[in-house]
Amino acid sequence: MPLPRPINPSYTLGVLTIASTLSYLDRQILGLLAEPLRQDLHLTDLQIGLLQGFTFAIVLATAGLPLGRWVDTGNRVRIAAVGIALWSIMTAACGFAGSFGALLLCRTGVALGEAALTPAAYSLISDLFPTRRRGLAISIYSTGAFIGAGLSLVLAATVLHELSSAGNVFVPPGMQHIWQMVFVFIGLPGIAVALWAASLKEPRKHSGATPGPIAGTVEIRAYFLDNRVELASLYFCLAFAATQAYSYSSWVPTVLIRTFHMPPIAVGFSLGPLFIASSVSGLIFGAILGDGLVRRGFAAARPILMCGAALIAALFTAAMPFASTLNAALVLIAIATFLSTIIVANGPPALQDITPSRMRGISSAVGILIVTLVGMGVGPTLVGFLSQDMLGDPSKIGVALSVVSTAALIVSSALALVAIFNYKLEPDNTAARAA
After folding, report:
1. DSSP H helical segments within 165-263, as ranges?
2. CA distance 77 to 74
3. Which position has the higher pLDDT, 92 or 33?
């Protein structure tokens, strides 16, 4: 009888990272096409805000809980593949939506599909990579989010360029507008990625020597209650860091346009690569540093790095309104992004390290719920509210962004400090680190 084919952790990680990149590209594509959608479908700004902000965040957050539980009890590879296929099909379907209601339904499907990927991916990666390498592996996966977000800005610039020279645009038969073609073009490749993901092998759900039984509701509740301080501090540390990240991705282009009169096309082509370079380098640097310190016996190395990175990043977000030139502003944005992604590089691995392997799906889902509701749901909206209703001057959007981002990072640093004094590795991860 032939032996089963061994699992290649790096190959699995590569496929999941590609899927993550695609998910963030699909997630943010609506923001690139907001203006033509508003004109062609007669949408209001409130409706556009619901499509790409609050509604998307609510579905993504709440769907993650049952999907996270499913991850702990089911086949994670199949769950991820189904999620990829669903959000890809629904992204392409947005190209055929002729009303706000139809577009809202399609966007709900996109959020539902994306809610399945990260809990499944974190659980798979944590079983495929030991504690001493887990930070780098999860950070490589996380680069997909930032690469997708950066590519969306580049794509936005390309779409704007094509729209500005509409005579050169070819729209296939059956479509009336270029935004329809963009949705279909972005969505369809995801079906191939879903089939690719479905071909992966499912590892056993354990990180120690022997697998355990599926965790029951009583055991899960007891774990969360017994570890509520360290879990809550890490969850909300990441959530407030996400407030800064989502606020930056939503409002930095507007700041550059209003403050430095930078053309939107130039913003996309310059800011997209800058975001990719600074965030990916921050993720890799933070992960390598965190893994190295854990290997040397510093059990709380990850929350320590999160605390320091958040506090230092706050200095650069606070300085941004005082930048006198465009180049100075871009440098401050790049450094703040680099430092804040060190938090992202260490937060999810820290949570995986303290969570029993049989509960990683639900633990990740709870984290995603909190991070999504606080980061995506509150951050960008709070910046807009502060600029419009408190400062009362659209040209001061940079000040509003700086206030929200700096305050969020300071709170994030304080919560990481709480986590440091309550942090303890889960026993099977302690054994894996020693090995």
Report:
1. 178-187, 189-198, 217-226, 228-260
2. 9
3. 92
Residue 84 backbone dihedrals phi, psi, to 5 degrees: -60, -45
**CB distance 71 to 119 below 8 Å:** yes
CATH 1.20.1250.20 fits 9-203+213-434, yes or no: yes
Q: Which of 72-81, 212-221, 364-373 has the lowest mean pLDDT?
A: 212-221
Cβ atoms of 34 and 52 closer than 8 Å: yes
Contact 343, 412 (CB under 8 A): yes
**Please, which pLDDT band fits residue 430 given cuts at 50, 70 and 90?**
very low
Structure tokens at 364: 């990740």
Task: Compute the distance between CA of residue 394 and CA of residue 78 in angstroms, rounded to an integer.
Answer: 47
Q: What is the pLDDT of residues 282-291, one digit of tens each?
A: 999 999 999 9
Q: Contact, 306 vs 350, CB < 8 A? A: yes
- Written as six digits, the tokens of 118 are 């990260």
**How many helices (H) and strands (E) in the chain?**
18, 0
- In order of 61, 238, 246, 332, 411, the CA distances from 314 in angstroms are 27, 14, 15, 11, 10
Give me the residue spans of the domains in the chain: 9-203+213-434
More confident: 306 or 428: 306
Direct distance between the N- and C-terminal alpha carbons of the chain, in angstroms, rounded to an integer: 31
Instruction: Report the range out of 80-84, 210-214, 293-297 with the highest average pLDDT.
Output: 80-84
The answer to whether residues 143 and 125 touch, using CB atoms and an 8 Å cutoff, is no
- Residue-wise DSSP of 237-268: HHHHHHHHHHHHHHHHHHHHHHHH---HHHHH
Q: Residue 209 — very low, low, confident or very high, per pLDDT cuts 50/70/90?
A: very low
Bigger pLDDT: 410 vs 155: 410
